[in-house]
Design brief:
The protein is mainly alpha-helical. The chain has a domain of about 30 residues. It has one helix and no strands. The protein is elongated and about 80 Å long. Belongs to the ATPase protein 8 family. One of its GO terms (biological process) is proton motive force-driven ATP synthesis. This is ATP synthase complex subunit 8. InterPro entries: ATP8_metazoa, ATPase_protein_8. Keywords: ATP synthesis, CF(0), Hydrogen ion transport, Ion transport, Membrane, Mitochondrion, Transmembrane, Transmembrane helix, Transport.
Length: about 55
Amino acid sequence: MPQLDLEIWFMMVIHSWFAFLVIVVPKVLAHSFTKVTPPKKAQKTETKAWDWPWH
């Protein structure tokens, strides 16, 4: 039964990972974002303490 032959499946996995690492990964890493916005200045917000009238 060919589906139980591990050598075939092992070679398919090796070839798949090789294709992924050689073709896909460099394309993803070469991607550059065209619209990069600089981070905004963080504004310190003033918080008030809660008023607990029953305590």
